[in-house]
Amino acid sequence: MADRLSRRKRLAFIVLAMGSAAVLAGACGEVAVRLFANTYSVQDIESRSLTYRPSVFTRHRLNQDRVVNKINGPADNAILINSRGFRGAEFHPQKDSGVIRILFLGGSSVFCANDRGVGNDWPHQIGTLLNNGDLKVEVINASVPGHDTVDSVGKFLTELWMYEPDYVVLYQGYNDQKYFDLVDQNLAYRDIHFPFDPEQDPRMHVAGLDRLLCGSKLYLELRYRFLELIYQEEGEPIPLAREHLQNRLSSVALAQYRLNLQMICDLAYNVGAVPILCKQARLVHPDNTAQDVERLNFRYVNFTHEAWCSAFAAADQILEEVGRQKNALVVDVSDSVTGRSEYFHDHIHLTNAGDAVVAELVGSALEQKILADETMVAKASTAATNQP
């Protein structure tokens, strides 16, 4: 009996010692994080992040009337979201006489979340370039991180046409590739997307025990590090879980992408605008180095490197064919930029240098297109004459 009691005491002592050590380690970790780490609350992160709301005709919309700045970032390094939920300054739905309005469609590579500050996204850089001459140009950057061409169709059909665009520039393809191995005769596009629920994003919403534990700076730091591994692209939900990287492209998915491009061209023409299709630049390239491949995020497309290169090539070919079919200008941004690591943060998002090159390429093509259009030239002349 005495031996059994002694064993219980030893076990209780071991458990107590281990528990005390864990509490002491946690307390030391808590003190260290509070003293040396810049750890912010969930509310701080939400106030400094792009946030979204549900939408019927797109997967989501940006919350409007916000100034989004990185924590500890300078005041002039913010992203301005106007009252219509687009990046940039306010604009009136009815454009002024003589103004040439250019509408940009795309996802995060057009939104340019890495480029903070008013006018630093490459679509607005194009506006600055074109406004240096006789042209009076107004840019609307209607891109939203995570959106694909189906979202662009939905936005244009239900809102963007009202803003009287003269040119509609589409720079999109990567987000569509996320369904290039999924959509087929048995799985329609509508079956792979679900209504957006902002409360499902744990980076910005907490509840229950999680909310209680967020009172600890150590827990917040560990929580933030863990969620960084899950959410690697700002504004995009966790992708569908699939078992292994794919090598196949679905012909039905490619047909869906083709149809989307055709509809965007038709919608532009139907409101008197000129569609312009751009081949999307990317780091993904058959000649990628090992270092480049490490920067490619395969989680969201679920392709092998070879299949991903094929997906981009297929998207480029479809875009060219639709351009010829619909008599739409195709701007080959990819040729000068793709595969050059100095122009990319990762697989698709541009550096400042990449933004400048893309702005120059697309801006030059737009300028030539505008100047070749007698109607646009006359409009520019009217605007110049009416200037005080």
What do you see in this structure?
The chain has 388 residues and is an alpha/beta fold. It folds into two domains: 1-36; 64-196 and 242-386, 3-Layer(aba) Sandwich (Rossmann fold), CATH 3.40.50. Helices cover 43% and strands 9% of the residues. The protein is built from 13 helices and nine strands. The strands form three sheets. It has a five-stranded parallel β-sheet, with helices on both faces. Strands 1-2 form a two-stranded antiparallel sheet. α1 packs across α7 (217-230), α4 packs across α12 and α8 runs parallel beside α10. The radius of gyration is 25 Å and the shape is globular. The protein starts with a helix and ends with a helix. The model has no long low-confidence stretch (mean pLDDT 84).
Task: Give the gist of this structure.
Helix content is 43%, strand content 9%.
Oligomeric status:
single chain
Describe the main β-sheet briefly: 5 strands, parallel
Q: Rg from C-alpha positions? A: 25 Å
| Gross morphology | globular
Number of domains: 2
Helical amount among residues, as a percent range? 40-55%
What is the number of strand segments? 9
Reconstruct the topology from this structure.
Layout: H1 2-36, H2 42-47, E1 52-53, E2 61-62, E3 66-68, E4 79-81, E5 100-106, H3 108-111, H4 122-130, E6 137-141, H5 149-158, E7 167-171, H6 208-213, H7 217-230, H8 251-270, E8 274-278, H9 290-294, H10 305-326, E9 329-331, H11 334-337, H12 352-371, H13 374-386
Parallel strand pairs: 5-6, 5-7, 7-8, 8-9
Antiparallel strand pairs: 1-2, 3-4
Helix pairs in contact: 1-7, 4-12, 5-8, 8-10
